[in-house]
Amino acid sequence: MTNESLTWEDAKRDTQAMETEIATRIPSDAVVTVTQNPTGVLFSCDQDKHRWMGKTTVVVTPGTEVESVVRGLEDRYRGGRFEVSTRTDIGGFYEVHLKSPQTAEGYIISEGDSRTIWIHSSSPCFTLPDDVYPGGKF
């Protein structure tokens, strides 16, 4: 589904705000730093539409059981506006996938390594103006 009035700037702002919301749901005593990438990239939804994709990295305190924190985030989002699914990635790390059934907006929350949690994001699809080239950083 595409939001015809959504600009790439709005998509980026809203998606980064959700990344921040997810990061703030990590217990504060487990958080060392939160670093949100200032730019992202555009990926095609189809021939005419794009989505903005970004990432936030949360470094956690030594000794934090990262998988337990990720599972806690899974519990926080069940029953809300996202469909929640999980998997174990090729590296053996637990992932939580949040996807909006209305807009296909999505987030993957996963263990980056023993001290980080990655929040990868993708916005709803939107139409770029004709004069905007979709390559590069946004």
- The number of helical runs is 2
Outline, from the CA principal axes?
globular
**Approximate strand percentage:** 35-45%
Average pLDDT confidence is 95
Largest sheet: 8 strands, antiparallel
The helicity comes to 10-25%
String of helices and strands: HEEEHEEEEE
Radius of gyration: 15 Å
Structural class: alpha+beta
* Amino-to-carboxy terminus distance: 21 Å
Give the total of beta strands: 8
Low-confidence stretches: none
Task: List descriptors.
8-stranded antiparallel β-sheet; 138 residues; globular; single chain; alpha+beta
Description:
This protein is an alpha+beta fold. It is 21% helix and 37% strand. The chain has 2 helices and 8 strands, in the order H-E-E-E-H-E-E-E-E-E. It is globular. The two termini are 21 Å apart.
Per-chain topology:
Elements: H1 8-24, E1 31-36, E2 41-44, E3 49-60, H2 66-77, E4 83-88, E5 94-99, E6 106-113, E7 116-122, E8 126-127
Antiparallel strand pairs: 1-3, 2-3, 3-7, 3-8, 4-5, 5-6, 6-7
Describe the structure concisely for a colleague.
The chain has 138 residues and is of the alpha+beta class. The chain has helices at 8-24, 66-77; strands at 31-36, 41-44, 49-60, 83-88, 94-99, 106-113, 116-122, 126-127.
